Amino acid sequence: MSVHGISENLTPTAQDIAHLKALYGLRIEDETGNGSGEGREQESDSDDGPRNDQLFWAESLSVPPLPDQLIRYHVSGTIDPEGDVDYFALQPPTIEVEGLKALMISVRSTQPNGLIPELAVYDEDGRAMKVDVLRNDNGLLIAQVDGAEPDDRVYLEVRSATTSSGFSTGGYDLVAAFEATPTKLTRYAELELTNEQAETSMPLHVDRPQLLHLALEAKPVEHDQGVVAWVALYDEQGEVRYQAATLAGQTRSAPTVFLEPGDYRLVFHAETPDGSDLQDNVELRLIGANLSIPFGPGLVDPTTEPVLPCNQSGADPNYCLPAGSVVTDPIIWPGQPKPTTQPAVPVVSPVQAPDRWYWSGVQTAQTAAGQPRHNGLRPADVNNDGVVTPLDALLVVTYLNETGRGVATDVTTWFFDVNNDDLVSPIDVLFVLTTLA
Question: Is residue 91 part of a domain?
């Protein structure tokens, strides 16, 4: 039979064909080409699962007629059971298209707090192509392959990025499109963490208000220790403004953050789940992008910085009332500032599964070990599944029945401290019920 790199080959025998049918479920033309094989590659009669779970059986995606020479592919699929892999082959368009030099791919989980997708791309010879991850958080993975063109036959592989329960299966939508200009991300930091220095920090200065997108990339390591790496961005008050966690060999991000002018601090850390020594150095890259047109001026809370007439001493020229202005919206004039009720955000406990961070983003009020956890994004969402249901109240009630009122010492479970008073009590149940009412 034909083998790569060998010019002479033998015609497949009947026994060869029988073996191939048994192994792959294929029907192959015989040497006379009389059609008895019913085609070179047909659907298998086997019903033992999806047919696109191997590269050899990649599902072919064609390009529908679209205006302006837009080359776009779309397909929906499901990763199930755990360990399932789906392959897709992008068929070149039938029309000639020039000037498209980058392949943009998005994989979106169809269920909140569900599948965490992972993507790989191969050329027509089965060689892995370089994939740049632009975004990977909250169920949306956006990546690009620079240099791929519509005439290339490209294979896409979709799988789960984790084996964690609840995040390793689920549905997804995949969209692939060719673009004229690839997206370039800025490299903000590149560093290496070791067992002797597993944490480091560096300053970040922001000179104008802007939206900032960041992603943390960790290169693969030799030993499989489940190494977790994360980055946290602190403002001058020590509050966490951004946080992302990833595993070795992966790139993950978090929702875009708005930063006002000022000095910030980036803290990088790497650790094993069991706290054992790092056997490998962990190489990290912090990449990102900011909007080309900056925001300005920054946002101002009128409860602490009242808006003054422009001709009054101390008025901010960016936020003042011109003479003769007619104001219809309520304005807080100079006087006693309204006190800020939101407490300062404590330092986030570093050891938390990246899969939790992937979906929930920054837990802005997660407390330290020995204190109950509070969901800073959705306080009444005790189990952090994206919605508030009676189940959230039931979880708190069950916990109280088992342990009684007090401080929750197991910080690896649910977000029991709904009202963020560092205690778990019937008041937390009341807060959930009030949210449901």
Answer: yes
